[in-house]
Amino acid sequence: MLETEILPIPSLETKPSEYDSYQCSLSSKFKDIAKEELREDESVRTQALAQFREWIAKHPHIKKCRTDAPFLLRFLRTKKFSVPVACELLEKYLSVRQLFPQWFQKLDINDPAIEAIVDSGYLFPLPERDEHGRKIIFSCASRFDATKYTSAQMARTHAMIVESLLDDEESQVAGYCYITDEGGLTMNHISLWSLVDLKRMSKCIQVSSPMRHKETHFVNIPSIANKVIEFAMSLVSDKLRKRMFFDKNVDELKTRVNPDLLPTEYGGKVTMDEMIAKFKETLKKNRDKTLALDDMFIDLEGAPVNWLSNDDADIEAGIVGSFRKLEVD
């Protein structure tokens, strides 16, 4: 068997003597989506990358950070090439990784617990995109052993899988769809997360994740989870709430999502085991690059990050208030 290709680790220099060269890999279909939805073309992209890199180089608190185009385009495309807003998102992303290392660091597929969670079929992306070009991330609550694994291990599994996908340009442009089968959810699952941590995690995802969240489908929600779902819904923005769908069963899900994209166990054409085995090759390939993200560093000393206050009012601003005077052009 051939050894898995290992992707190189991008530089973390904030002021490199030369930036990595970039060649857009988007097909004409995704270039059209980028132009229509994100206002992106070659000129806009080139100028935005140059401004973003200059801003990082001037930033007094960002000490180590990737500046390669695939990484920075995560933020620019999520924020439709508004450079100042993309800069804020990067600050929050770097801050969250350091404030909550138990959730967002040591994302290692060779960690026995994390690998076992992946092998169980709890969470994985489907191999084929939907008709809008979106990558679908599929999860199945019953396949997570809540008596054996912790909420931190669950969170790191999510973060690792997401990080392995974020540099993909097609997904940056078209966004993501989520399918969550809550069938088999138990009180053991629910009790893994305190309400405080659930609130913090929800905010972390909403304010720091460089992803275009397009649709979320919840399937087979048991009655014991209704209150939790209601609480979770209260934490998300109106924009995301309008993109959520609740399907009573898989048959109802299939009226919204092409059944052929789903695993065989849900009426599709490829088994979960096959999908997971293929995706693990991607995780192995990305392992060193993903772990190297832990070396990025933003100096939070003295920054007004009052994210853990009772009203959590400052999480929306993150540490951005201190840096608003930095130039982006």
What do these coordinates show?
The chain is of the alpha/beta class and 329 residues long. 44% of the residues lie in helices and 9% in strands. It has 14 helices and 7 strands. It has helices at 28-38, 42-58, 69-78, 83-99, 101-104, 112-120, 151-165, 169-174, 187-190, 195-208, 226-235, 238-241, 250-253, 272-291, and strands spanning 62-64, 123-125, 135-140, 176-181, 213-219, 244-247, 297-298. The strands form 2 sheets. It has a 5-stranded mixed beta sheet. Helix 3 (69-78) packs across helix 4 and helix 7 crosses helix 14 (272-291).
Unreliable parts: 307-329
Q: What is the succession of H and E elements?
A: HHEHHHHEEHHEHHEHHEHHE
> What's the quaternary structure here?
single chain
User: Percentage of helical residues?
Assistant: 40-55%
Q: Which geometry do the CA atoms define?
A: globular
Rounded mean pLDDT is 89
Number of strands: 7
Biggest sheet, spatial arrangement of strands: 2-3-4-5-6
- The number of helical elements comes to 14
Give me a quick take on this structure.
This protein is an alpha/beta fold.
List the helices and strands and how they pair.
Elements: H1 28-38, H2 42-58, E1 62-64, H3 69-78, H4 83-99, H5 101-104, H6 112-120, E2 123-125, E3 135-140, H7 151-165, H8 169-174, E4 176-181, H9 187-190, H10 195-208, E5 213-219, H11 226-235, H12 238-241, E6 244-247, H13 250-253, H14 272-291, E7 297-298
Parallel strand pairs: 3-4, 4-5, 5-6
Antiparallel strand pairs: 1-7, 2-3
Offer a few descriptive terms.
single chain; 329 residues; alpha/beta; two-stranded antiparallel ribbon; globular
